[in-house]
Amino acid sequence: MYTFSDRTTIPPSQTLTINALALEKRAKGDRIYNLSAGEPMIDTFPIIVEAAKQALDAGKTHYTPAAGVSELRVAAASWMHETYSTSYAKEHTIVTAGGKHGLSLLFDALLTPGDEVLIPAPYWVSYPSQVRMAGGKPVMINTTIDTGWKISPTDIKTHMTDRTRVLLLNNASNPTGVLYTREELEALLAMAASHNLLVISDEVYSGLVYDDALYTSCGSFSAYQDTVIVVQSMSKHFAMTGWRVGFVFAHEDIIRMLIKLQGQTTSGASTISQWAALAGVHHAEDIIRANNTEMQKRRDVLRDVFAIHVGVKIDPAPAGLYQFISLPSLGSTVIDSVAFCTDVLTNANVAMVPGVAFGAEGYVRCSFGEQQEELVAAVEALALYLEKQ
Ligand code: PLP
Description:
Layout: H1 16-27, E1 33-34, H2 46-57, H3 70-84, E2 93-96, H4 98-110, E3 116-121, H5 126-133, E4 137-142, H6 153-159, E5 164-170, H7 182-194, E6 198-202, E7 228-233, E8 246-249, H8 252-263, H9 271-282, H10 284-310, E9 322-326, H11 337-348, E10 350-351, E11 353-354, E12 363-367, H12 372-388
Parallel strand pairs: 1-10, 3-4, 3-5, 5-6, 6-7
Antiparallel strand pairs: 2-8, 7-8, 9-12, 11-12
Helix pairs in contact: 1-11, 2-9, 3-9, 4-5, 4-8, 6-7, 10-12
The structure holds pyridoxal-5'-phosphate (PLP).
């Protein structure tokens, strides 16, 4: 009956079936064990909530500039500088409605129809669809566990065509938790720059890095200031997913273009959320340290219960919120990850995300975003299911 634009020809979400089934079961009163959380199930810090209340009381309920609240732009840029040695200032910073909208604005701003974006796989589910919606063509660079889920400079070269415009990096990665070293990043950025590619570095998990590992922001390489764009978010390490605040840091010409696009679309992130985020950024060190410590504990609990109940040793993810686990390692003969996740949810009430959604069949993504007791109960239920197979 309706005709939709070519830009909407994106595949339906492969996690939809699983989510729908989980919701249906929950509605029937089933207890669903959640290993699929895409966020840290941690309450937002009281200091942030208090700042939101104060903003409301002070009548900060009007539009902000499309670029975001000026104080927040300044504070976010200096947080990046202090934490990751970048040299962004206010004019290199835009506040967006989450990292997700920052990415979407970037693809809209940078891609001419037919332009190609290199995306390491496994990838976060929204990348290919966002690229397609902007008229671009996602080109996957497949990685495997054998290369530590990492791409190399040669991979960039072999996947390039004369239409390649952007390399998308997700450090630390959802779903694999992979963390690149400074040297590895430098080599990738050098290769990208030598081919005139822009690099979008999605760093929304930069604060959830474990075992005292060092995090390198792609924004910290002065040689690549003009070719690197960093996407950040208040969602994960500040535990503020629902507030919808993120950032893009880039050359001011790019930021100016994003402001123009944002001004004609959302007008910006919620005013109240931005003032709340400002309090978060002012207390970034304490907040992120606390959230990081808690998430590392949860990661270790997940590892321990897998070892105890399932009898499987998983290598703890160096960063992020997820363990990416191969189905054969769980003793499963089923390799179809949607079939596996559907069966586990149907028969054991455990929700996980099928690897195929991230472009890696034969895997499942187990989140350790939930509270420790939930993780233990979920893995116990999964173990009982696996025993019966
Ligand atoms: N990038 C990655 C890799 C993610 O996993 C997510 C959320 O799951 C986002 C970006 C977007 O997060 P938000 O829009 O909440 O900032």
